[in-house]
Amino acid sequence: MELAQIRMFKTVAEVGSIARAAEKLFCVPSNITARIKALEAELGVALFLREGRGLRISPAGQTFLAYAEKILALTAEAKRAVDPSAEPSGPLRIGAIESSATGRLPRLLAKFHQRYPQVALELTTGTWAQLLDDTVSHRLDGAIVAVDVERSQLRRTPMYREELLLIASTSFGPVRGIEDLQDKTVFMWPQGCPYRAALEHWLLRQGLSLPIVSLASYGAIVGCVSAGAGVALVPKGVFEQYAKGAGCVGYEFAELTAVDNLFYWHENAGVHPAREAFVAMLREEFVA
Q1: For position 250, what pLDDT does the model report?
Q2: Confidence (pLDDT) at 255
Q3: Which pLDDT tens digit goes with each residue over 244-256?
Q4: Is this prediction's pTM over 0.85?
Q5: Are 14 and 51 in contact (CB under 8 A)?
Q6: How confident is the model at residue 52 (pLDDT cuts 50, 70, 90)?
Q7: How many CA atoms lie within 13 A of 220 on its CB side?
């Protein structure tokens, strides 16, 4: 079993085609076909199910893919570990919840790229649970999420606190207290979002029940609020980034507790200069 075979297998699994994998790896399709067949012979299982002219990864292939990702991640780590003092370079895969990616990271990403041009930074957004899963599986080098949870194989450190604002259209009229929200529609991310949980706890403490429409996009949420269809609870960073310019007004309430955003990384990831430089910049940017 060779690293080249494992890399070819992973690439085919990702793109779903030997021809596209060959383009991505800059080699001929016949080479990939032969190397994967040799790998299947060595393992004694079919890694792909051949359906006409297409390929579909087999159940055994799915199992092997998890190990392939770990093997390749450890290989990359080994290369970095031999020169820990090197200038940060190479790929850096960071995950972030949308509020962080939209409201807090744009300026930092531009600054990071200017300071470390040799780092190929990839930013992925998703739910906090998916981002942590991807970090455990080495598909991400680290993730920023708005939950503080114990997770096997992961370490974490607080980055910043996100203040929460209730936003409404300028045509909505002033919101002096929670009683002004009676019978109003609230637009929020689906269940599982920590900011939605903060809203639900606040409403519960105030004894108020409001209809909540689930939208998995801050753009859609801000659009609905801007149109006067209802209100929403958003992180201050999202409001400052584009809700304020969309004809929305932000209201602060002492009862709305700020939510910590933390950075998670794999405890066995070892030396990773690019990731460590990114965390240092996060601290520089956000930690007082």
Answers
A1: 93
A2: 85
A3: 888 899 999 888 8
A4: no
A5: no
A6: confident
A7: 11
Q: CA neighbours within 13 Å on the CB side: how many for 169?
A: 15
When computed from its CA atoms, the radius of gyration of the chain, rounded to whole angstroms, is 23
Question: Is the torsion defined by CA of 66, 68, 72, 75 positive or negative?
Answer: positive
What element of type H or E holds 280? helix 273-286
Beta strands in the chain (DSSP E): 48-51, 54-57, 90-96, 119-125, 142-145, 154-162, 164-169, 186-188, 212-214, 232-235, 248-251, 259-266
What is the Cα–Cα distance from 234 to 263, expressed in whole angstroms? 20
Neighbours of 76 (CB within 10 A): 17
**Cβ-based burial of 1 (10 A; exposed 0-12, middle 13-18, buried ≥19):** exposed
Q: How far apart are CA 265 and CA 282, in angstroms?
A: 14
DSSP string across 189-255:
PPTT-HHHHHHHHHHHHHT----EEE-S-HHHHHHHHHTTS-BEEEEHHHIIIIIGGGTEEEE--TT
What are the chain's domains? 3-80 (1.10.10.10), 86-162+260-286 (3.40.190.10), 164-257 (3.40.190.10)
Give the model's pLDDT for residue 6.
Answer: 94
> At 62, which amino acid appears?
Q
Burial of 59 (0-12, 13-18, 19+ CB in 10 A): exposed
pLDDT at 173: 82
Between CA 12 and CA 9 the distance in angstroms is: 5
Distance (Å, rounded) from C-alpha 262 to C-alpha 37?
43
Between CA 188 and CA 222 the distance in angstroms is 10
Residue-level pLDDT at 11: 93
pLDDT of residue 136: 95
What's the gap between Cα 3 and its chain centre? 28
